[in-house]
Request: fold
Amino acid sequence: MSDSHDNHSVHRIVLPSGRKIEVVRFHDDLTEERTGPLHVCPSCDSHLVQPVDWAEASEEQWDLLLRCPNCDWSDEGIYDQRSVEELEEHLDEGLAELLGDLQRLTQANMADEIDRFVAALENDLILPEDF
Ligand SMILES: [Zn+2]
Reply:
């Protein structure tokens, strides 16, 4: 099913899960024709593309300035809500991974501190004359 409007067309797609989504294609010069998801750099294929700046362009449309930290590629374009939500999901995953790493690091540091504390107890505080 497809509706055509002056500057965009709406394609309704039913996913295998049964969820219905609307894909809006804008025939606006500002709209980027991107083949891959927004978090993937079109220049170097890095998956770390981040939004540097963003503004709501219109209802369900976002004006994003994207930047790749790997190769310094950056680009501004108007993207639909769905693409932006996908990008956010990847950002959330990245953040969750980062927090997971930080937590593991903190635990490793604490374990290391406990080891040193135990070593200090054994070497300095628990002396033979205590017995
Ligand atoms: Zn890149």
The mean pLDDT is 78.
